[in-house]
From TrEMBL:
<feature type="transmembrane region" description="Helical">
    <location>
        <begin position="26"/>
        <end position="48"/>
    </location>
</feature>
<dbReference type="InterPro" id="IPR000725">
    <property type="entry name" value="Olfact_rcpt"/>
</dbReference>
<keyword id="KW-0675">Receptor</keyword>
<keyword id="KW-1133">Transmembrane helix</keyword>
<keyword id="KW-0297">G-protein coupled receptor</keyword>
<dbReference type="GO" id="GO:0005886">
    <property type="term" value="C:plasma membrane"/>
</dbReference>
<keyword id="KW-0716">Sensory transduction</keyword>
<dbReference type="GO" id="GO:0004930">
    <property type="term" value="F:G protein-coupled receptor activity"/>
</dbReference>
<dbReference type="InterPro" id="IPR017452">
    <property type="entry name" value="GPCR_Rhodpsn_7TM"/>
</dbReference>
<keyword id="KW-1003">Cell membrane</keyword>
<comment type="similarity">
    <text>Belongs to the G-protein coupled receptor 1 family.</text>
</comment>
<keyword id="KW-0812">Transmembrane</keyword>
<keyword id="KW-0807">Transducer</keyword>
<dbReference type="InterPro" id="IPR000276">
    <property type="entry name" value="GPCR_Rhodpsn"/>
</dbReference>
<feature type="transmembrane region" description="Helical">
    <location>
        <begin position="140"/>
        <end position="158"/>
    </location>
</feature>
<feature type="domain" description="G-protein coupled receptors family 1 profile">
    <location>
        <begin position="41"/>
        <end position="290"/>
    </location>
</feature>
<keyword id="KW-0472">Membrane</keyword>
Length: 313
């Protein structure tokens, strides 16, 4: 096993994958490539959505917010992960750990609510096509996006602060690659049953409630399309909603496995790999899913490239 640099002081040790040194080398390359694709893909979506006037619609406004969340979310985690995977030092300062905990939890919570908001937008587009622009007016879009961001900030201020205030009695080895609430709770040297219940209740509100709203929205969408009984209508729904459903499945399917299950059954290796999926893999796949399945984004990218080429030398 690779020797971990046991520094003293207030630093934490992110054990991560240090018990599998060969896997660390593979993960370093994979995570580095994934992070690069995340930066390029999400930045491209943000730029295209802002620069192309044809994408100045509620759907792409929320997609821009999602890409911004993914950019910041991965950046709060991946650089530290790459540093730990590359060298023998696995430490993170107490301040750095606190910042990572607050920022990643805020952005993860924001994405949970934002995906529900995007599902409501698709519901309005499919079920109220003639009144869509009236219903999804700019003020409502700003309010819904603001609600998503504020819910994330509120959750992290509560959950993060309570978790960091738990007495740890000198425990500083985090058996994870990230300063995350479930992993930090395990460091406590007191009874954490109340904290586990609080985490579970917060997860119900910010994970299962948005997921339920998403499922209800798509239930109404299916009913609306079923009444039309048109193959073309089904294709339109798949084109506009399929990408979002795929993103929802990837994100909620992984993050619920970590936050909904009781902390006592939070498996050591299983939890790390599941966390790797929603912190690294999902933000990489999101822009690929939206660009490969979305003709509007593809067209906007072509127009942007064509415009750039036409003004060149």
């Amino acid at each position: 096993m690779q020797i971990i640099n046991e520094t003293v002081g207030g630093d934490f040790i992110l054990v991560g994958f240090s018990d599998q040194p060969q896997l660390e080398k593979i993960l370093f390359v994979g995570v580095l490539i994934s992070y690069f694709l995340t930066l390029v893909g999400n930045t491209a979506i943000i730029l295209v959505s802002c620069l192309d006037s044809m994408l100045h619609t509620p759907m792409y406004y929320f997609l821009t917010n999602l890409s911004l969340v993914d950019l910041c979310f991965t950046t709060s985690i991946v650089p530290q992960l790459l540093w730990n995977l590359h060298g023998p030092a696995k430490t993170i300062t107490a301040v750095g750990c606190a910042i990572q905990l607050y920022v990643s939890l805020a952005l993860g919570s924001t994405e949970c609510v934002l995906l529900a908001v995007m599902a409501f937008d698709r519901y309005a587009a499919v079920c109220w096509p003639l009144h869509y622009t009236t219903v999804m007016h700019s003020r409502l879009c700003w309010s819904l996006a603001g609600m998503a961001w504020l819910s994330g900030v509120g959750n992290t201020l509560i959950q993060g602060t309570i978790t960091l205030q738990l007495p740890r009695c000198g425990n500083h080895r985090i058996y994870h690659f990230i300063c995350e609430v479930p992993a930090m709770i395990k460091l406590a040297c007191v009874d954490v049953h109340a904290n586990e219940v609080q985490l579970f209740l917060a997860s119900l509100v910010l994970l299962l409630l948005p997921l339920a709203l998403i499922l209800i929205s798509y239930g109404y969408i299916v009913q609306a399309v079923a009444r039309v009984r048109s193959v073309q209508a089904w294709r339109k729904v798949l084109g506009t909603c399929g990408s979002h459903l795929l993103v929802v499945s990837l994100f909620y399917g992984t993050i619920t496995a970590v936050y909904i299950q009781p902390n006592s059954s939070y498996a050591y290796s299983e939890g790390k790999f599941i966390t790797l999926l929603y912190t690294v893999v999902t933000p990489t796949l999101n822009p690929l899913i939206y660009t490969l399945r979305n003709k509007d984004v593809q067209g906007a990218l072509r127009r942007l490239v064509s415009k750039h080429g036409s003004i060149g030398p």
